[in-house]
Amino acid sequence: MGTRFELVLANDRDEHELRSAGESALEVIRDWHDRLSIFDRGSLVSRINREAHEKPVRIDRDMLDLFSACERWRAMTDGAFDIAVGSLMEHFGFRDTGATENVPPFGMDLVEIDADAMTVRFTEPGVKLDFGAVAKGWAIDRALDVLREEGVTSALLHGGTSTVGVIGSDRDGEPWRVRIEDDEHAPVALLRDASLSVSAPSGRLNERQEGHVIDPREGKPSAGARLAAVIAVYSAETDALSTALVVLGERPGSIPGDVVSILPAQGSTPGGWAAAGDAAGRVIVSDSGSDQEGQHAS
What does the domain layout of the chain look like in residue ranges? Predict the structure, then answer.
């Protein structure tokens, strides 16, 4: 998936058992890498991108579930989240292929999912899927499920520091502390059985210094928000919705999330971070002008 995953297990259990559980969780991530990576020519998504305009490509139930979730988030965000923007990522120079001259076809309106036949088909050549806005979160959720099945009650798993999912509390029984940005003055999220994702266009720039978050409605790099953070139960949802909120620049009523923070492209929100909420005692975001420490998620 073009990123690094790190896992922290804090249970007071036999080290061998914890290591075995951790390896099982990381194997799930490797499995989803083999399906979703656009950097691996042998991945399922790479094969879909090569072949789906010529013939339907078969998928399994797990992939169908992912497509269904992505379509739900696309509807929830009025199209600000869309996984069929791979051609635009190439067009604007965010891939090794370099920028292209003509705007290619894009968008899930050009993708047909047959749930009965379990197939994917493109209605036009040139369409490409890119699960980069949700792949990490989706894999983290599945890996955390494995850890729970193995009896793990305290864990933190992050992908590229931008998406974090936690089980329970840390070793001391306190919430896991995750800094929203790599800045000592950034807010700190306190997580219990929750997930946090942070999206920022500045994470990767092309030659024109445009951010890598694409606005699927306009077919070009987003000019919405400088950064968006979402805290909710599931990592895939926080991953997808934080990306959509960067595009939207504000939170519409259709988007859930226990805590949402958005920093506009210009200036800042009143009082800096507009973050508040307490999801049944699971999560809060605190202002961290002091010397609080923790993982960072940007």
Answer: 156-296
